[in-house]
Amino acid sequence: MSPPAPESLGRRRRLVDTADAGQSVLARPLPREPFKGQKRPPCTRYAEVELVGACWLPHELKAPCPDVLYEHQGKCYSPAFSAKQPPSSLGQ
Fold first, then answer.
1. What are phi and psi of 45, to 5 degrees?
2. How far apart are alpha carbons 27 and 15 in whole angstroms?
3. Contact predicate 27/65, CB 8 Å
4. How far apart are alpha carbons 5 and 9 in whole angstroms?
5. Distance separating alpha carbons of residues 19 and 2, to the nearest angstrom
6. What is the pLDDT of residues 12-44, one digit of tens each?
7. Of 16, 35, 75, 91, which residue is least crowded by CB atoms under 10 Å?
8. Mean pLDDT on 55-79
9. What is d(CA 53, CA 62) in angstroms, rounded to the nearest whole number?
């Protein structure tokens, strides 16, 4: 089976090796830009951190992170999303 074409790799999850030489650890790096609907700065003080132009929730877990989290500089994060806006009118 031949490897996928480069253009098809954009939609796949990317896993990269972030371990020191001699260890093999796969991690899911932060995306290059915020997710759609992800909270933008200002981030909630003491609860969120700003990374790649968006707010992220840090976890006590250290890399290697579970698949539901993202790794950045040996720490695990999950994206913070803004709450949906309440409706501006009630069906008028």
1. -60, 135
2. 5
3. yes
4. 7
5. 28
6. 445 444 445 555 556 789 999 999 999 999 999
7. 91
8. 93
9. 22
Write down the pLDDT at residue 76.
94
Q: What is the pLDDT of residue 40?
A: 95
| 25 and 64 Cβ atoms separated by less than 8 Å | yes
Q: Two tokens at 2? A: 């031949």
Name the residue with tokens 């003080």.
Answer: 45
pLDDT of residue 34: 95
Tally of residues, the chain: 92
